[in-house]
Amino acid sequence: MLIFLLQSVWLYISELAGKDLELDIILKFLINVSPRLIVLVLPLTILLSSIMVFGTLSENYEFAAMKASGISLQRSMKSLIVFTFILGVITFLFSNNVVPIAEYNFHNLRKNISKVKPSMAIAEGQFSQIGNYNIKVENKYGDGNKLLDKVIIHQKKNKPGNFTVIKSKEGEIISKENSNVLQLKLYDGNYYDEVISKDYSEQIKKPFVKSYFEEYLINIDIGSLNEVDFNDEDEINKHSMMHVNELSLAIDSLSKKKIKDLEVISSKMYNRSNFKTISYNLNPKENIDYKNDNFLNLFQPKRQKQLYDLAISSVKSTISIVKSNKTIQSYRVQNLNKHIMTMHDKYSLGFACIILFFIGAPLGTIIKKGGYGLPLVISILLFLAYHFLGIFAKNLAEDSSINPILASWLSTL
Fold first, then answer.
1. Confidence tier at 255 by pLDDT (50, 70, 90)
2. What residues pair up with 172 in beta bridges, in sequence order?
3. How sure is the predictor about 230, in pLDDT bands with cuts at 50, 70 and 90?
4. Residue 69 class from Cβ within 10 Å (0-12 exposed, 13-18 middle, 19+ buried)?
5. CA separation for the pair 142, 140 (Å, rounded)
6. If DSSP codes are grouped into helix, strand and coil, which group holds residue 75?
7. Which residues are registered as beta bridge partners of 130?
8. Please, what is the angle between helix 2-11 and helix 23-59, to 10°?
9. Which of 45, 57, 77, 54 is CA-nearest to residue 379?
10. Which residues lie across from 149 on neighbouring strands?
């Protein structure tokens, strides 16, 4: 558990390091990230403990003594089997009730770190990317670390490179708490902007604009920054914050919406093809053999070219519409599959705990070794096979390469 917790801290170290976070915020961060790790580690824990316990019993000939005393293997395992089944139920309840709340709090905490304390958005001694700005300060001091020393700002443009550079000796963050705007006031500095010209002869001259300022105010929308970082994640990972009942309703709603969308798209494409009106302009009195005669021979060469151009343009436009709708539908199918997998993961996790116990118990009696040596190696190898099989299956199931229900249960099966 400690290893996985450290791995999570390392994963989000960029959001924690150099931002002067209080200890209670870091503890809250770790507490909210722990439930997802418990769900991941619990099957490994059951597998390892069952191998260790039964390996120790077998190593010390306890099973032989039980058999000599008239105690059958089933009877000796009865209490552990009942305990494992109860643990499987508790695991489902934990995954269904505790994990969604922790996921919601975790994402909400990440989203609001910059808003609660705007000065956290700027790290000390390194460039911090905030919107279209890369900001570096040598030192932060004062009340709430809002006073800045030796500020360097690179402003991004559409072209790659640092064309706009702002340097000042001092600066100050004047944003209020819970504000979506990071207000940065700079004092005693210089502004340099390289002029980008389309004319090559002007580019050779390397024109630029340079000015000095006593006071310069920059407003940065950190609300839009959070939106880029977190709203997309909410749309993709909202399923991780739902209970089974909510997931069931969401899956039903998304499935119906998918069918309705496909019906609308097919109807639009059918109407766009003008297939219904293709015979309106044909004269039934004309005796034309459409199978053997070329339809275009009815028109003059100039008109034939116009028809060809119109047909090519129509086909290209239709292909573009189909590709666009295909991309949109692929995202929606991916979202639906994630909801399905999340719901079935809650059930499969409880069964996985039971299954891994029944794998670990006989393995322990076979290897006849207790302790942390060989049992730890075997349990890690088995768990890695179980875990990676589940990851590969879920990655394939996102685009419906395999059934998402099968992907959730494959590693357990």
1. confident
2. 147, 185
3. very low
4. exposed
5. 7
6. helix
7. 133
8. 150
9. 45
10. 139, 170
